[in-house]
Automatic annotation (TrEMBL):
Residues 1-29 form the signal peptide. It comes from the Bacteria. It comes from Actinomadura rugatobispora. Keywords: Signal. This is Secreted protein.
Amino acid sequence: MVRSFRQRVLTSAAAVTGIVALTATPAHAATWTVSGAGGLVFYASSGQPYLRDVQTNVAFTCDQQLMASELNDTSGHPGPGIGVLENFDWGTCFHPSIGQFAVTSENFWEYNAVAPTANPDVSVISVTAIELEVSGPGCEATISGGAPGYYHSDTGYLEMDLNAPNPGGHELVASDVTGCTGMLANGRTMEWDAAYLTDPVYGLSSTP
């Protein structure tokens, strides 16, 4: 199922356009509703996801990313931990200085509903408890933390965007760096930039 979904995403990705920066709408003690998820959602990248070193602007680029989410239909949820991301496949990855490298993750990532926006179909989300292992010739590192983004309920489009509202102050930071001379260092902030289409498309909405 994941493979067939990936093929559909790759052929339809060009149709996903018009993504713009949105501002979170102030909300107090909002609760969240998920509809149509059915317990399991697949995500496939609609382009090349990357992890970019914010200081040097050099990116670790992968040809795809596939992942799954345990996401149940619910209502009245406070938002944090509304779902769990797992089963990651980053495909083939490349860095301009070290060539091909591997990105792996064994833990579960938390998927959080954060805030509504002025567009009722778009919600601010975050992914936390991220832990990635990056390894290539002469370079190994751990990248961990959290990242902000948006989910579009009308199109099933999930985008990870460093410029999305980030009230939790989440960031991804490199640590346990071995080698990687001139490429990566402990304490460097990393950007996870990626866009995904979901199967099935599910609704995510908030109630003040």
